[in-house]
């Protein structure tokens, strides 16, 4: 293991990754560079500096990546109306490629020959970190301590801390929680604990970002979202950068009990797992994006997007953000978004996101054609007969040859 | 037009189709057979008999098709988690193939050489009726009066009634409504009127089947749905036939403000149209079905279903229920449902359908593998390294050849 | 019909379209603009000028579009490895959007309010011309004489000629043929006549562009094709513009008995039809393009292309070249072609196109990894175990729950 | 390693798997059961008995699986027109699931707790064997000696033979070849040696099953293939079981220089590899199957099959034959084949498979509709106008809103 000289670690400042710093120094006898990012997880990142220093780290990267995260990762993903397995908005998945990219870039800057992360060997995140790293720096060495070490229980971990004088209060920057959690501007997730029984309802006290629908205001909230090329650029007419848009929607969504999700999902590594998610802003975004597309997208573009979406979602979930096939799909999706401009009006009420209006200068909705009233010749109803008869021709030929179409 | 001797008409008993009876008799000089079906639209169908008789109809078919409708059409469609354009549950679409089938069967029984319907030349329903009819009886003649006659305004229609002594009270069995409406056990739909401006919010008084989330009870309702092969067969442990299941879910869903939808959709005939829908039971069904699948379906089966679904939805929407390609997709879908058995527990509250539990003897969820605790060797974390490295191999080779994966 | 003042006609100079000129002048009392294009059909286009003049046409467009045709239509289509129904290389289909575009552009230049073409009401070409025209000039009037007039037999057509003094020798610029034919640089097609019985073998004398495999040289021909971004740019190291590339391949392919095809295909208008095609250059191109992709494309890019291709082919066949969904797919496909560079060596022999070598500076083929010999650690065989075990995990869980995977 | 008591080995009787027998006995101290199958590889399997006995094996399975192989694996795959990456007919891939199944069944019969195979750690076959085994017997132990041992060169292997007195003539039942080869009734494959340079043309002497097109007869051969439900059941009117059909086609195809293929393919384990294949019968089958489908399949069924095929091919190639998703696709495919009945006439000539006729009582080809002659009203050309106009409507609306469709 002596061949690793320097490793860049995705460092949260928490207990686990602090242990990893020490373990890497000891096990590999190498220098550790820490990288801590503010992705909107709702905790200060600056305290990580002192902790890293206390662990003897000399090169410390602490970065605010919130705008990049939302603008270049979250928003492109939402252009595809991306949902994994019909429900999950991919809040954890979409943050990983950005972290992988920064790990690799920092490795290049600091001359490190390895990267490391604190994800376990059972989950999707290890895959996402490592596929990203390999795609961007093919010769990189990846160290995943959870797959290597024998600190397989909380007790062993605490013993290691004591033995190596890692301050226990490193663990205290998170509220105590029986759940394994992850957060960024798109969502907060919960796994483990009582959730491991899929028949057990999640406890109310678990949720952190949203009130329950019951506890939400009795008065509905209306908002207008302005879209440009498929991305929200303004709320109620006020322009904001991408991360402030999402932040605003998280707050207003959370207040209205929006965005809770409780599912059993299929992990890429082959097992099913129960997860609970709060995605207030994302839930609003998805609904609004479909609404703006409903008046501005051509039918066949929209249908093609719907057919490609599950594949795109799978790629993001599985960790293939940095892959040629994701780029191909993104090219097709982005091609469709040039006209996804306009305003969507939403009513938020106790968990509900209700579309109540949409308008656009790029609207393809043409009341003069669709109207039940006289359309002044905009549409010739007689055209429908030929349309139907030729679409039916193959079915009629089949039936006349004795094919049972029923 | 003298070559039509007898025509079977989809007859609602309302004013429009009563005019059609008379118009067919006059224009084609033919006998008219009426067919009126109870699909759960919530109105008595028996009154149609006297009206038809008054119009001189001798062969009158009045049928309760509710069970067939839900069991053989609605439920098979829900096995696919079918949603059109991300939102619409296809309530109108799925009723048409059954009506088309009965029209054709009655034509065969009565020796009729034509069928007729009251759908306009602008909508999807004409296509669905006629594709179905042609697929099942390729030589059938189809008469679509709205595409042929000149009764293009309400005034002309009323004048025709007066002239032909069609009792005006034929119009009175429906509540007056400014909307074009359609209902069956799966949903009720609204089009036209103020909805023709997609920026205008639907009025509260429009909705008929559900209370608003605001008006729903402050207390949540819990229900358990039991699935067998992908279909709900019992509610709270009580077995019911398919149509009673849906009827029960409509009632309980409507009481809890569930299932309202307001969208702009793409019609098969090429235009966009605004529609509002109430689908209380269907909205519950969809959520519950995904939940039972989440623990009982293999990952790749589920993903394949998700990729095929938009195509399947398009087929149903466009009227290709009676087509070989729909049968192909149904064969694949049904193949996946043999293990979709178990119970889903839902919480219904002010418009929200919240999955709170799922259990099944066919569950593939294995807490002993997924657990964050010690798994006693059920899963070897070291396997993940090889898994990731080989999945990354093509990306690494590409990157090492200078491909920019970012 | 008096509202049409000027119409642009796709004019071949042959008898049928000459009749159409006269018929349009008479029936619509309008001015006719003729448009004749050299797409490589192998006949002089200049003679069309005198004929059009003789028919009283004042605005005559005669254009050599061969380079545009191959560069902007044929080559982009081949980037997708496009094949319709597993066999057909879309030679007729791909020429139509270019003609539609020029008809519309000429209509705009000349102030014409209508376009006209000589395609029948049974075929795909009417659809392709008209969808293209409507997509590019939505208010255009389209006149399709074959769907309107009563000149439904050869006799009536000849009578019309005599009556209107259209010189009979207009018919003589084509060799007499019992087949309906169409040709351009990509192919020549044959329909009708004895081909209407799909059990009857095509006669040897029907084929015009290629010798039979039997008559081809006993000596094989080798050629090297150089690709840049998915397009062939040089043959045997000699750079040529796109149309000369295809022309060269047609000649050398035809000499070697390559590119004959005899199929029954499904028309967009709903019927099956028998067609025979000679596509010597295209057949070579397709094989070579797949070969260059085989060493330069990432696996998942290639597989995604394969999954999208049938949809793309259907769009081209059905006439949706000028549609947003085709542009979406093209964006994805073109994204994949940046690395499709290199040289493919082919052996042409009596109908066979045999790939015998491929090389590229962008090759992803890595003999040091794939080798059966010692790979010096480039690939760790132990990785395969984890790869297999995690890919198998869902199957194992299923089987252990009693699922019969067989 | 003492926990393995008995292992079933896929035993060819050759040198490599003979070494494996000994190595398993030594390394695992376990009993070895050998399984040798005749899949039509063209070598006697019975000699494997004496060799196994000489190695001390007590339970020896030698089976003729040719009919099962073709009937239950090859033919179902061909119903899908399965081709991997546009070229490869999956000859090796399709044999693996059958072998995996028999290994597992024999393990169950003999009370073995493990299976073993002689595939290397770089190839696809290990994946196919092991995914199959895990899917059918989830708790099975798999031993892949090539991933475990240190006999990584031919020299070490020969030394092991000498040391363990494995007769060297075990190696002599194959003709000496510089290639890694695999054969069964569907094909014979070649990898390695000079093929590791994709620019090098394969040597003529490499090919074993077919003559070169140059060496094939100057006279064409005609054959008629009779299909029932998508499978060939008779040749020239003579009924034969599945494996005799394929055997016959291999012979006649090989004689006519048909079925050679030279490609670079993408392995599931992540690398590209060069392979040469001879698939004479399969090449004929594929062409003929498409031809019978061309007249008997509904257009949309055929197109749906074409869109699903690449996925199906990928599943087979990657080793997921025994998976729920393959069964789903098979259900859809088989649903389409009930009408794939009839006769296809082929001309075989120097590498070419030329379809010259097809006929069927289930034909959907209707000359009376498709004809260029008078169709007596079977098709109303005026229908085309409405068909086109409504299909164009969305494009026209888009264009009239300023969308550039070009």
From TrEMBL, chains A, B, C, D:
The keyword Nucleotide-binding applies. L-aspartate binds at residues 120, 124-125. Keywords: Amino-acid biosynthesis, Arginine biosynthesis, ATP-binding, Cytoplasm, Ligase, Nucleotide-binding. One of its GO terms (biological process) is L-arginine biosynthetic process. Residues 179-397 form the Arginosuccinate synthase C-terminal domain. Pathway: Amino-acid biosynthesis; L-arginine biosynthesis; L-arginine from L-ornithine and carbamoyl phosphate: step 2/3. ATP binds at residues 10-18, 37, 118. GO terms for molecular function: argininosuccinate synthase activity; ATP binding. Its EC number is 6.3.4.5. PROSITE patterns: ARGININOSUCCIN_SYN_1, ARGININOSUCCIN_SYN_2. L-citrulline binds at residues 88, 93, 124, 128, 180, 189, 265, 277. One of its GO terms (cellular component) is cytoplasm. Residues 6-167 form the Arginosuccinate synthase-like N-terminal domain. InterPro entries: Arginosuc_syn_C (IPR048268), Arginosuc_syn_N (IPR048267), Arginosuc_synth (IPR001518), Arginosuc_synth_CS (IPR018223), Arginosuc_synth_type_1_subfam (IPR023434), AS_cat/multimer_dom_body (IPR024074), Rossmann-like_a/b/a_fold (IPR014729). It is found in: Cytoplasm. It catalyses: L-citrulline + L-aspartate + ATP = 2-(N(omega)-L-arginino)succinate + AMP + diphosphate + H(+). Belongs to the argininosuccinate synthase family. Type 1 subfamily. Homotetramer. HAMAP family: Arg_succ_synth_type1 (MF_00005). This is Argininosuccinate synthase. The lineage of its organism: Bacteria, Pseudomonadati, Pseudomonadota, Gammaproteobacteria, Oceanospirillales. The gene is argG.
